[in-house]
Amino acid sequence: MAVGKHWQILVLLGDGIGAEIMPHVLRVLDIVSISDASFDIITHDFGGRSIDLHGTPLTEDTLDQATKSDAVLLGAVGGPQWDDLPMEKKPEKALLSLRSELDCFANLRPALSFSPLIEASTLKPEVVAELDVLIVRELTGGIYFGTPRGVELRNNLRRGFNTLVYDETEIERIAKVAFELARKRRRRVCSVDKANVLEVTQLWRDVVIEVHRSFKDVELTHMYVDNAAMQLVRWPKQFDVILTGNMFGDILSDTAAMLTGSIGMLPSASINANGQGIYEPVHGSAPDIAGKNVANPLATILSIAMMFRYSLDQPLLADSIEYAVEAVLAQGLRTADIMPPNPSNELHLVGTNEMVDSVISSLVGTDT
Ligand code: NAD
Questions:
Q1: Which residues are bridge partners to 74 per DSSP?
Q2: What is the CA radius of gyration of the chain?
Q3: Exposed / middle / buried, residue 61 (Cβ in 10 Å: 0-12, 13-18, 19+)
Q4: What is the 239 CA–ligand 1 centroid distance (Å)?
Q5: Does 195 sit in the ligand 1 pocket, CB within 6 Å?
Q6: Is the pLDDT of residue 1 over 50?
Q7: Model confidence over 100-111: pLDDT tens digits?
């Protein structure tokens, strides 16, 4: 239970289902504030809505507020009405700028299976039951940011090129995050690279081994990325924390996401060296279902749980939110995305608002 804590949270509603879900979900914070934790919740426009109102997807004022906040809670951005804007002006640019301005170099993506939803996975129940894997992905370096990059004409042929580059400080800081998180879990880190082919990932492996000298209580193993992709779908429960670079992490975290069923269930965090973080569902703004009260709000609720765990150091509050989610699923409540095609009588289709209300009722019934 949190006693006398006070936090400043910046809420960025965003667009589509992001803006639809977030106002309901914020009531979770009202419930936990009963337990003597209080929040300054400051809401700013972001993404497409910010373009419409302020001419830019991320204003200086919003960025300034983000740097002063303990955590940023983000809905989702984007929509067809902004698709034709130049790349620099699109809603999605706001996400990349925010992550890079806050130097959120560590992306945490849990793959957690909720037992009532095991049937929603495409894998066999025994493969995914009680799955709890955390992917720690380097987010601000690697091939997505390396230079030189581009497409050029050489000998009359178009030639595209990108640069996969990491310096040792970038590897060191993400490795420390992974080892520290492993200490709060099952104390195992598997570092994923391609050290048999790429020199930069041989450096990755060397630096991870050096950092590990300060974390001898954590078991370290290494795996090539091709094998890791295979092992994730063969027997994912062999992993506790997976540590990897930007591009490999991008691919492996989406693979891991599918182990657990729907995109509507997946939270994520991007944190910096000060513990500040951006917490957001993995899904986008889903314009196809926005405004219809059908979107699954659980990924956003679980993102709040991650905020308590990783930025506000309140693991018990995080646990209680996750238990509340598990409880409503166990009661048989399902939004459309997690409803099986031929549901049993025990399952009940609910909308966004009813799902949030049920999680809150369940939370009120537990000691937060
Ligand atoms: P999306 O994640 O928005 O939707 C993909 C599919 O999943 C859709 O069929 C949607 O209805 C469904 N879905 C997503 N979230 C759901 C939820 N909570 N409950 C039920 N169903 C859900 O991806 P997209 O359609 O490729 O992109 C739509 C827009 O979102 C684009 O503008 C894209 O750029 C943007 N986007 C933003 C983010 C972000 O803000 N982090 C991430 C991905 C995409």
A1: 12
A2: 21
A3: exposed
A4: 28
A5: no
A6: no
A7: 899 999 999 999
Task: Please check the confidence at residue 11 and state whether its pLDDT lies above 80.
Answer: yes
Pick from 211, 221, 135: which is nearest to 179 by CA?
Answer: 211
Tokens encoding 26: 């914020």
The catalytic site residues sit at 144, 194, 226, 250, 254
Q: How many CB atoms lie under 10 A from the CB of residue 353?
A: 13
Distance 285 CA to ligand 1 centre (A): 5
pTM for this predicted structure: 0.90
Would you call the peptide bond into 148 cis, given omega within 30 degrees of 0 as the criterion? yes
Is residue 21 within 8 A of residue 285, CB to CB? The reply is: no
- Cβ of 284 below 6 Å from ligand 1: yes
Q: Ligand 1, from 270, 283, 288: best to mutate by most atoms within 8 Å of Cβ?
A: 283
Q: Are 318 and 309 in contact (CB under 8 A)?
A: yes
Q: Is the dihedral of CA 196, 200, 202, 208 positive or negative?
A: negative
**Ligand 1 atom 44, closest CA:** 284
Q: Which of 194, 197, 181, 188 lies closest to 228, judged by CA?
A: 194
**Whose structure tokens read 């031929």?**
342
* CA atoms lying within 13 Å on the CB side of residue 5: 20
- Look at ligand 1, atom 27, and give the residue with the nearest C-alpha: 284
Whole-number Å distance, alpha carbon 308 to ligand 1 midpoint, is: 24
Contact 171/141 with Cβ under 8 angstroms? no
pLDDT digits (tens, 9 = 90+) for 294-313: 999 999 999 999 999 999 98
* Most ligand 1 atoms within 8 A of CB, residue of 22, 263, 302 to mutate: 263
Ligand 1 midpoint to CA 264 (Å)? 9
Measured between alpha carbons, how far is 349 from 24 in angstroms, rounded to an integer?
18
Q: How far is 327 from 95, CA to CA, in rounded Å?
A: 32
Roughly what angle, to the nearest 10 degrees, separates helices 298-310 and 315-330?
160
d(CA 243, CA 189): 7
